[in-house]
Amino acid sequence: MKTQDVKLYAAQQLHRLQALPDNQRRAELAKLRRGIGHAPGDLPELWGSFLLEMPESFQGRSAPSAAEWAVYLALTLYAMHQQGNDRLMNCPGNTLGRAVRQLAERNSAGQDWTEASVLRRFNALATAEEITEISHHLRGMIQLLSAAKDGGIPLDYPQLAADLYELQCTDPRYAQTPANVRLRWGQDLYRDPKPAPDEKEKEN
C-alpha cells in the first residue's frame, strides 16, 4: 500500500537525520529549512535530503509526485519545528489532530478549548485543497506548535507524510481520500485525551 510506503520512507529519513553526529545534523536541518516555501526539486542542494533511496515508484516525471510532495513537506517542516527545541519534535502517535488539541488547551488558560483561535487556523488547513495552499497553512500551524508555551508540542511526522499523500489522492478507486484524512484529524482533535477509567474505578 503506497500510503504505508510513504510513511515508512519518511520514518527512515527522519531516523537517518536523528542518527547523524550533532554538527552534521544541525547543518542538514538548516539546509532543509531553506527548502520551505519551495517545491520539491527547486533547490539542488536538497535533492539528497529527500530523494536518497526514494523508491522509483514515488518519483514524478513531469512534476513532483504526491509522494515527493508529502515527504518533502514532512522533512522541511520537521526541520523548522525542531529549531530551538531541545526535545525531539518527532513523536510517534501524536497526530496533527492531537497536537492541535494540546495547543488549544494550553492557549485556552482554563477556558473552553473549543473556542481557541488556533482552531480557526486548523479549519483553514483542513479545508485547503491544493498542495501549495495546504503547505502554507501547515507551515503556520507548525510554527505555533514549535513556539507553544511550556515547550514545543511534537508531531508524528511519518504520519503527517502519509496524511499529506492521501490529501492529494483524488482517485475514487482508492479507499483513502482527502475526506478520510480530514475526518481522522477531527476525530483526533475531539477525542478525550484522558485515559478511560478501568472497571474497578467505574464500580467505585
UniProtKB/TrEMBL annotation:
The record's CDD domains line, in alphabetical order, gives: Cse2_I-E (cd09731)
NCBIfam families in alphabetical order: casB_cse2
- List the protein's name: Type I-E CRISPR-associated protein Cse2/CasB
Query: Which species is listed as the source?
Result: Faecalibacterium faecis
